[in-house]
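Open question from group meeting: does this chain pack into something compact, or does most of it stay loose? Before anyone orders reagents, we agreed to write out a predicted structure and look at it together. Recording both the input and the output here so the notebook holds the full record.
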Amino acid sequence: EEDIRRCWDAMRDIGRNGAPVELEAIREHLMALAIEEGANQDEASVEGEISGFVASLFLTHRGFAEIWQMGEASEGRIFIKDRWPSSKSYDEARHKIAEERGISLMEAEV
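Structure tokens returned:
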């Protein structure tokens, strides 16, 4: 859950006002955070790559973001976009998702 929130924060830090963000930029952002927290270059690279990709998929599945690819499958650029740019917090976005789907907050986490 922490990785998902960190990815959400990165998406919003980079893509202000809901602008699309390239997944590579999120990876680099998460990598820099990991280094700031004491990870070495290799650990930070793995953290950025895996956490960024997996958390982005969860953000999409849970309704926080849209994700798409431009270009060829193996060489295309992947973009992610915040669906709730006016939300002030992750929890506010969760409430909006639950309301949109007509479900409880607990169900919005699944």
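Observations to bring back to the group:
The chain is about 60% helix and 15% strand.
Strands lie at 21-22, 65-70, 77-82.
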